[in-house]
Amino acid sequence: MTTRRIRVKEVAAPSADARILAFEPADAEPFEFEPGQHVCLSTTLNGEKVNRYYSIASGPHPAGRFELCIKPVADGSPLGEHLARIAPGEEFECSAPGGTFRLTEPLRDTVFVAAGTGITPFRAMLRHLLAGPEDRHQGRGITLIFGARRPDELYFRSEFEQLETQRPQFRFWPTISGPHADWTGRRGRVQSHLDKALGNRRDSTDVYICGPRSMLDDVRARLTASGFDEQAIHYEKYE
Ligand SMILES: Cc1cc2nc3c(=O)[nH]c(=O)nc-3n(C[C@H](O)[C@H](O)[C@H](O)COP(=O)(O)OP(=O)(O)OC[C@H]3O[C@@H](n4cnc5c(N)ncnc54)[C@H](O)[C@@H]3O)c2cc1C
Predict the structure, then answer these.
(1) Nearest atom of ligand 1 to the alpha carbon of 53
(2) pLDDT above 80 (res 233)
(3) How many angstroms does the Cα of residue 179 sit away from the middle of ligand 1?
(4) What secondary structure, in 3-state letters, does 1-28 show?
(5) Which of 35, 68, 133, 205, CA to CA, is 20 to 30 A from 58?
(6) Does 116 contact ligand 1 (Cβ within 6 A)?
């Protein structure tokens, strides 16, 4: 596997345990990827090489800068713990961007379904489709159903809310599954909002799903049980 050296440029903490890490290549070569792709980060900790996959959360950048959004799990790897405490300047090895989780052509109406850090590839796709001056989605409808236990785990929330006010074809549907008293928006798991998001456009919609296995398997099972075209279901599993 071809690897590059990359350096942490900035660290942000959207919630107590998640980090948004901005990296730049340590060399001057461009860093090219398609929205939806991931990288494999590796380093040596306590004499052992550790690596994990992470989806790229940002759109293309002329200097090759890119962002990851990571949240270590309880009893996870030393790399997850290390990334949660990282400071700017540290270097890692990084694979070339890879994976087949990408937007399919021709573009159709689209429903993105994300839970937790599963939002990351969709942020990259939305930046590609909607954030630039040109409308790459040619006016087709896009709904993002984004589930989290708590509002602070709705990573990039303000950005999606702003995008919704700027692009009439984009609907942002955050949903909270935990008992959060102040939350007045959608509640429950992402699955419970899927039928409404598809509406009467099931035959002309692609559904993209990303996140933990249980959510992903359930969304896929619901779609196929209702006769939804399997070719129009695209997914990336995080575990
Ligand atoms: C293609 C791909 C892209 C990924 N992109 C991201 C990303 O953008 N951000 C990110 O934080 N993680 C991402 N992951 C998961 C990531 O590789 C790590 O597994 C995760 O960050 C937890 O890391 P850890 O080192 O704390 O624990 P690990 O040792 O990696 O995992 C410990 C256990 O938790 C499970 N697990 C991993 N992720 C989850 C999850 N979300 N929910 C429940 N259980 C989980 C693992 O399967 C394992 O059984 C991706 C995984 C894949 C395969």
Answers:
(1) 17
(2) yes
(3) 25
(4) CCEEEEEEEEEECCCCCCEEEEEEECCC
(5) 205
(6) yes
What contacts 5, CB < 8 A, 6 or more positions away? 25, 26, 27, 91, 92, 93, 94
52 Ramachandran zone, left/alpha/beta (phi>0; psi -120 to 50): beta
- For the segment 214-229, what is each residue's pLDDT rounded down to a tens digit? 999 999 999 999 999 9
3-class DSSP state for residue 5? Answer: strand
What residue type is assigned to position 135 of the chain?
D
The enclosing H or E element of 217 equals helix 213-225
Measured in residues, the chain has a length of 239
Q: Specify the CATH class of 3-95 in words.
A: mainly beta
Q: Rounded to the nearest whole angstrom, what is the distance from the C-alpha of residue 43 to the centroid of ligand 1?
A: 16
For the segment 21-33, what is each residue's pLDDT rounded down to a tens digit?
999 999 888 889 9
- Quote the CA–CA distance of 182 and 69 in Å, as a whole number: 25
Residue pLDDT, tens place only, 127-174: 999 877 777 777 789 999 999 999 999 999 999 999 999 999 999 999
Instruction: Report the separation in Å between the CA atom of 191 and the middle of ligand 1, taken as the mean of its atom positions.
Output: 21
Residue among 78, 75, 57 at smallest CA distance from 66: 57
Q: How far does the centroid of ligand 1 lie from the alpha carbon of residue 158, in Å?
A: 24
Residue nearest to atom 22 of ligand 1 (CA): 72
CATH among 3.40.50.80, 3.40.50.150, 3.20.20.140, 3.40.640.10 for 109-237: 3.40.50.80
Please work out whether the CB of residue 121 comes within 6 Å of at least one atom of ligand 1.
Answer: no
Q: What atom in ligand 1 is closest to the CA of residue 71?
A: 11
The encoded tokens of residue 86 equal 């990282």
Contact 102, 34 (CB under 8 A): yes
